[in-house]
Amino acid sequence: MITNEKVWRPDNLHDAWILSSKLSDQCCFVSGGTWLRTQWEAGTKEMAPHLISLDKVPEVKEDISLKGQLGQEEVVIGASTTLAEMITNPTLNEKAPVLVKACKNIAGPSIRNQGTIGGNILSCVGDAIPALIVLNAKLMWFNGDELVYQSIEEWLLNQDEVRDILVSIHIPTDKSKGEHYEFAFYTKVGRRESFIPSLVTVAGTGCYRKGEGIFSHVSLSVGGGNVVPIRLPNTEVKIINNEYSSELLYNVLRQVQQDYKPIDDAFGSAAYKRKVAGNLIVSELYRIGGSNHALE
Ligand SMILES: Cc1cc2nc3c(=O)[nH]c(=O)nc-3n(C[C@H](O)[C@H](O)[C@H](O)COP(=O)(O)OP(=O)(O)OC[C@H]3O[C@@H](n4cnc5c(N)ncnc54)[C@H](O)[C@@H]3O)c2cc1C
């Protein structure tokens, strides 16, 4: 039986998982430790007697790379990649600039040097999550026996106490399977410009055929504060294959307000956050389509 409190540093996935099974609720995984620290300091989570650092596990530390054959390409990001590394990576800047923008909006440089994309996802309320949702990101987990893939959207619907190890994040960049997008946006609103938790965060990707003024392949997501980010399928339906018009914008505004259910907190009321989310998405659609069509 393991008794002494300590920080464990296994050097492979299997050992990390065995340790976490043995120590059970007496342990937790740690990457950058910035989210855990916030919870310990706020008293919302007790510090576990055993911390399992993943900093020596090679699969989790994998460098950002483009993998797969042409037509089935994906960007693979090791879960321990720091937010600072995400921002400066050329592949990510080329293939998923909306995710880079999201990372730039998280905390300040000192936290971004330490905090990881994996930790941001596992906080369940991280500001990178809306961008990952609209990019159709998949998560690869190690469950003790094998590596399994799960879409981030599916995981967010069922995230309970996580015992598995998040190994990597996979972003499809295949342009022939409807993954192609011509516009992408990400906006975070807080109570001041930077270094502040988000009130509302929205992200979107899609195509807009300028000649016809028609939207297609639209994905939208909203999060912020202590609410788990969600995709907005009902709002997407109001946009996809429809022509840009003021009526479309009004319908979108109404639908976002129906679909998004934030909660009141010390920083803003639920009604205010719903309104901000709707306005942000509508203003992005206006920016994309408005230059082409004068609003009637
Ligand atoms: C001053 C300050 C400002 C901040 N501002 C923001 C902000 O603007 N936006 C924002 O989104 N966040 C913010 N954060 C929160 C945090 O810094 C980020 O979410 C960061 O990305 C968390 O990453 P981490 O590596 O430090 O996570 P950690 O604290 O190491 O871990 C977070 C959670 O994930 C689990 N975990 C970590 N890695 C794995 C893995 N590979 N497999 C399984 N479980 C794992 C841990 O057990 C823990 O439950 C802020 C924090 C601070 C202190």
TrEMBL record:
What is the protein name given in its UniProt record? Xanthine dehydrogenase
Query: Which domain of life does the protein's organism represent?
Result: Bacteria
Tell me which UniProt keywords the record has, alphabetically: FAD, Flavoprotein, Oxidoreductase
Q: Which organism is it from?
A: Salipaludibacillus keqinensis
PANTHER family of this UniProt entry?
XANTHINE DEHYDROGENASE SUBUNIT C-RELATED
Which PROSITE patterns does the annotation name? FAD_PCMH
Q: Which GO terms describe its molecular function?
A: FAD binding; oxidoreductase activity
**What single Pfam family name could you report for this chain, choosing any that match?**
FAD_binding_5
Q: Where is the FAD-binding PCMH-type domain?
A: 1-176
